[in-house]
Amino acid sequence: MQTTLLGILGLALLGTLHAQDSIPVQADFQQDKLTGRWYSIGLASNSNWFKEKRHLMKMCTTIISTTAEGNLEVTSTYPKGDQCVTRNSLYTKTEQPGRFSYTSPRWGSKHNIHVVETNYEEYALVATQISKSTGSSTMVLLYSRTKELSPKRLEMFTQFSREQGLTDDEILILPQTGEQGAQGW
C-alpha cells in the first residue's frame, strides 16, 4: 500500500514537473530589459476567480523593477470601485533565467512564472502555473509597452493560451481604462 501511494505521488510530481518544463522560456533572457512600465493587454486563466471576476477586469498598469538580489519587484495598479489599488509582488529568480517563483501571502498559492517570449520594447508573454491546496490553474498574461498591440500579437497570445489548454471563454483581451487600469485581483 505504501509503495503504491509513493508511486502515485511520484507520478503526480513528475507530471507537475513535466507541465512546468513544457512551458518555454525566452531564449537569452535579459532581465534588465524587462524592467519599466507595462500595460496588461490580455489575460487568460482557468481559475475560479477569473470566471467570477472576468466581467469586471480591465487593463492594468504594471511597473517591473529589479531588486539588489536580482529578483523582480512587480507593482500593479488598478481601480477597484472608486479607488485605485496597488499590489506589490516579489518574483524570486530561479536557476533558469526568465523563470521566477512567487508565493501569495494572502492566499498561500505558489506561482511558477515563465517569461515565455518578449522583444522587451513592444510586448511580453508571461505564463504562470499556480498551485494551492484547492488545486492548480494556469494564467497567461500579455503585456505591452503601450495600451494597444497589433492583431498579430493578440493572436499570438490567444494561440499560446489555447496551447496551454485554455478555452476561448477563458481568454480575455482587457478593455482599456484610465492611467491605472484594472484586473480585479
TrEMBL record:
GO terms for biological process: mast cell degranulation; prostaglandin biosynthetic process. It catalyses: prostaglandin H2 = prostaglandin D2. Gene3D superfamilies: 2.40.128.20. One of its GO terms (molecular function) is prostaglandin-D synthase activity. Monomer. The gene is Lipo. GO terms for cellular component: extracellular space; Golgi apparatus; nuclear membrane; perinuclear region of cytoplasm; rough endoplasmic reticulum. It holds the Pfam family Lipocalin. This is Prostaglandin-H2 D-isomerase.
